[in-house]
Amino acid sequence: MSLLFILAGYLFGSLPSGYLLVRWKEKKDIRSLGSRSTGATNVLRAAGWAAALPVLAVDAAKGFLPVVLGARWFPEQPLVPLAASLAAVAGHCYPVTLRFRGGKGVASALGAFAGMGIFPGLLCLAVFASVIALTRYVSLGSLLAVSSFPLFRLALGARDGPWTWAWWGAILAVVVLRHKDNIGRLFRGEERKFGRTDRERRS
């Protein structure tokens, strides 16, 4: 049953909410627009807030629910919720439903962090929002938010074991891999700043 739950986490993560909403609203493939990601930021640029907010909620739930449900359904197997949420983040980034071309995993990662602890999850979200407000770089806010999670856990007194650290490290590795092009552009000073949506630019 635990392996089935982990597989279900991957399939849930593979739900292409961004792709489906943009296809429905704009009659376009989100993977051909902007950053070519199916995540909420690219959906915002392509189709506006009305599409981006539900995508953000679904993507966060992809990480949050496997942690919460896994802890409830498998109380004697603490690795199951960790593995299932990691599978969900991987599914969002590399969905079998879209030939492994998905989002960048940040909302799903933050959802998983919130499942582990609401307060550190909210602090990571605060880092994300603050960095974007100061720099207007979504990628930088994303990377710093995901990187900061274990620091907040330690500061709040959590005593996580090695498997939890490995879980966080694996999620960070996936997010960094999906942002490798953004990282290169940040170093070159060529990264696109957060601003008006593509729809607003066309009007």
Task: Offer a concise description of the structure.
With 203 residues, the protein is an all-alpha fold.
What brief labels describe this structure?
203 residues, globular, disordered C terminus
Question: How would you describe what is shown here?
Answer:
By secondary structure, the protein is an all-alpha fold. It has one domain. Helix content is 73%, strand content 0%. It contains eleven helices and no strands. It has helices spanning 2-13, 17-26, 40-47, 49-73, 79-93, 106-116, 118-135, 138-155, 162-178, 180-188, 198-202. The radius of gyration is 16 Å and the shape is globular. Residues 196-203 have low confidence and may be disordered.
Q: How do the strands and helices of this protein lay out in sequence?
A:
Layout: H1 2-13, H2 17-26, H3 40-47, H4 49-73, H5 79-93, H6 106-116, H7 118-135, H8 138-155, H9 162-178, H10 180-188, H11 198-202
Helix pairs in contact: 1-4, 1-5, 2-3, 2-4, 3-4, 4-5, 4-6, 5-6, 5-9, 6-7, 6-8, 7-8, 8-9
Oligomer kind? single chain
Helical content stands at over 70%
**What is the end-to-end distance?**
52 Å
E-strand count: 0
* Topology as a string of helices (H) and strands (E): HHHHHHHHHHH
Biggest sheet architecture? none
How much of the polypeptide forms β-strand, as a percent range? under 5%
Low-confidence stretches: 196-203
Shape: globular
Count the DSSP helices.
11
Q: Into how many domains do the coordinates divide?
A: 1
Class computed from helices, strands and strand pairing: mainly alpha
User: Radius of gyration in whole Å, from Cα?
Assistant: 16 Å
Average pLDDT number: 93
